[in-house]
Amino acid sequence: GENVEQHPSTLSVQEGDSAVIKCTYSDSASNYFPWYKQELGKRPQLIIDIRSNVGEKKDQRIAVTLNKTAKHFSLHITETQPEDSAVYFCAALYTNAGKSTFGDGTTLTVKP
Amino acid sequence: EAGVTQFPSHSVIEKGQTVTLRCDPISGHDNLYWYRRVMGKEIKFLLHFVKESKQDESGMPNNRFLAERTGGTYSTLKVQPAELEDSGVYFCASRGLGSTDTQYFGPGTRLTVL
After folding, report:
1. Could you say which of A17, A81, A82, B75 is the most buried, measured as most Cβ atoms within 10 Å of its Cβ?
2. In this complex, do B42 and A44 lie within 8 Å of one another by their Cβ atoms?
3. A62 CB contacts (<8 Å, ≥6 apart)?
4. What pairs with residue B45 in β-bridges?
């Protein structure tokens, strides 16, 4: 089955700096890669996603890159703000199967 | 539209007791998933319903867990009897049919087994 590894487990940055979280996956059949943000006590919320036919996608301060050959994808947050502090999960799935395989999560702390 | 809802938000039970968690997906979503996050680790897949049918239950840990989705609307996940290692946050997610693959998560039920 699919296995997703996520690094780092914790990340602390100064407000205004960039943050990068990396994930690798094992199953070459996976074709959809969402990223979720979970604030304390709240539900995981989709913040950005990328499909296997695209190498990069950007939405304001958030971008995701995908390298299918190396089977890794990354989340980039620029100009971080304290409200970006949360746990971020990457996931990989083969859309026909439907179930998501998640990374362990990265706790991002943005210091004012 | 209303999001995925889960009940209860918290449950504290003793080892050996029974607990039933409920998930109400977004109206019209045929796909319903159960996940669990234990001890701050990854969110792990438990099972997937398409309407009332179990599409994939490969993540169910053992036969103490029973999931149902009668009528293809809300779903329940029963743990009987509960063990200490069942403690964690149980998430439900739903997804519509069609081109979108986005799964929308509920707020989760935090289960503590003492």
Report:
1. B75
2. no
3. A47, A48, A75, A76, A77
4. B35
User: Given CB atoms, is B7 within the 8 Å cutoff of chain A?
Assistant: no
Q: If you compute the radius of gyration of chain B from its CA atoms, what whole number of angstroms results?
A: 13
Contact B72, B58 (CB under 8 A): no
Amino acid at B43: I
> Mind listing the pLDDT tens digit for each residue in B4-53?
999 999 999 999 999 999 999 999 899 999 999 998 788 999 999 999 99
Q: In what order do the strands lie in the sheet with B5-7?
A: B5-7, B19-24, B75-79, B65-68
Q: Which two tokens stand for residue A63?
A: 């971008």
pLDDT per position as a tens digit, B56-69: 999 999 999 999 99
Q: How many Å apart are CA B67 and CA B72, to the nearest integer?
A: 12
Residue A16 burial (CB count, 10 A): 11
Give the whole-angstrom CA distance, residue A63 versus residue A95: 21
